Amino acid sequence: MKNVTDSLVSLGHWPAAGSFGFNTDILATNPINLSVVIGVLIFFGKGVLSDLLDNRKQRILNTIRNSEELREGAIEQLEKARARLRKVEMEADQYRVNGYSEIERDKLNWINSTYKTLEQLENDKNETIQFEQQRAINQVRQRIFQQALQGALGTLNSCLNNELHLRIISANIDMLGAMKEMTD
Known about the structure:
Its main location: membrane. It is a single-pass membrane protein. The protein is mostly helical and 184 residues long. The protein has one domain (34-182). It contains four helices and no strands. It has helices at residues 2-11, 26-98, 101-159, 162-183. Helix 2 (26-98) packs antiparallel against helix 3. The protein is elongated, with a radius of gyration of 36 Å.
């Protein structure tokens, strides 16, 4: 019976229902705030990040398709060059019989320039693919880093008091100064 009366007496100390006030208990409010912020980030950020990655994937696939088309064009040119080569070789045999060795030199120069051109096209295609892949990776990394940094800053700002905040800023400035001295 004493527990019942104690609980009724303690009810008199509670504010009236429907009143507004601030909960200053940090341990009670931070997990709630963090769960709300994390939930909102997951709910809204997942679609944005997914769209960014899908768009980037499409651009990379388009670049790869374009490179494949260039490759197919290069293969067609190679086949044409081979056909021309066979034709030139037959003509060269006729001229060689007749003693025209200069035609043979022209043929070899033309073949070499064709192969160099094809090699250059293949190298350009590979470099383009590699560049686009690296650019896509860097953009995704940068987006993820920015989102993580924004989340961390939001969490830090909600958890830090002014004195702790100033100490962290000073420590980071000192760290950046040390890193600058290392690079200089």
